[in-house]
Amino acid sequence: MTAPVFVVDAVPGAGNFLLDGPEGRHAVSVKRLREGEELVLVDGRGRWAACEVVAAEGKDQLTVRVAEVHEDPAEEPRITVVQALPKGDRGELAVETMTETGVDAIVPWAASRCITQWKGDRGLKALAKWRSTAREAGKQSRRTRFPEIADLMTTKQVAALLAEADFAAVLHEDRDHPSGALATADLPAKGSVVLVVGPEGGVSPEELAAFGAAGAKPYRLGRSVLRTSTAGTAATALVLGRTGRWS
């Protein structure tokens, strides 16, 4: 099993470093790391360091020795999923599984057919929960770069994002749609890929028209219809495999 990952604001240079606060508590009281064991410090932006535990003190302080610092470059193509707001806690499920799979960015989208609405304090809390979920899933999956969770976007803002992409697709539930399958689409080796996942009620004709005007075509994933909380994960995995990021 690979060494556990802990998140810090900034990865320190070579030498001793004190890991404290919530991450230190988790390392000492939950993981029960002791002298000689290994761990990895990451900042979630690609910088990381392999470390060895020097000593544990109290319930939330761990002194580690940083041997060498590394920085992983951003991978290409960059994959962004525009995720229509699902019902209940299925939004966090979508964020968790997409993060574990390898998505680079997630954009919450207020589609016209979304039952869930993010407004006021409720919206801010929901966004914070998505970001916390991405951070924890990034740690669990041993990522050094965590996905960016954007602010909630309108259809107009999503269309502007699609217009800037090197490849833009709207995942469509119609298996006989003339645009064909994402599995056979011509994907770029570099640049940006943006995938739009609609709500349970589907993407409206007006939204499809707006996205089409921005250069996004509808594509199907397969013969079965996936839920909005799983479609983004499946599409991300497909793109990762086809573009060589999983090679």
From TrEMBL:
This is Ribosomal RNA small subunit methyltransferase E. It is found in: Cytoplasm. Belongs to the RNA methyltransferase RsmE family. GO terms for molecular function: rRNA (uridine-N3-)-methyltransferase activity. Specifically methylates the N3 position of the uracil ring of uridine 1498 (m3U1498) in 16S rRNA. Acts on the fully assembled 30S ribosomal subunit. It is an enzyme of class 2 (transferase). Residues 75-239 form the Ribosomal RNA small subunit methyltransferase E methyltransferase domain. PANTHER family: 16S RRNA (URACIL(1498)-N(3))-METHYLTRANSFERASE, RIBOSOMAL RNA SMALL SUBUNIT METHYLTRANSFERASE E. It comes from Streptomyces cinereoruber. Its EC number is 2.1.1.193. It catalyses: uridine(1498) in 16S rRNA + S-adenosyl-L-methionine = N(3)-methyluridine(1498) in 16S rRNA + S-adenosyl-L-homocysteine + H(+). Keywords: Cytoplasm, Methyltransferase, rRNA processing, S-adenosyl-L-methionine, Transferase. Residues 19-66 form the Ribosomal RNA small subunit methyltransferase E PUA-like domain. The keyword Lyase does not apply. GO terms for biological process: rRNA base methylation. The lineage of its organism: Bacteria, Bacillati, Actinomycetota, Actinomycetes, Kitasatosporales. Its main location: cytoplasm. CDD domains: RsmE-like (cd18084). One of its GO terms (cellular component) is cytoplasm.
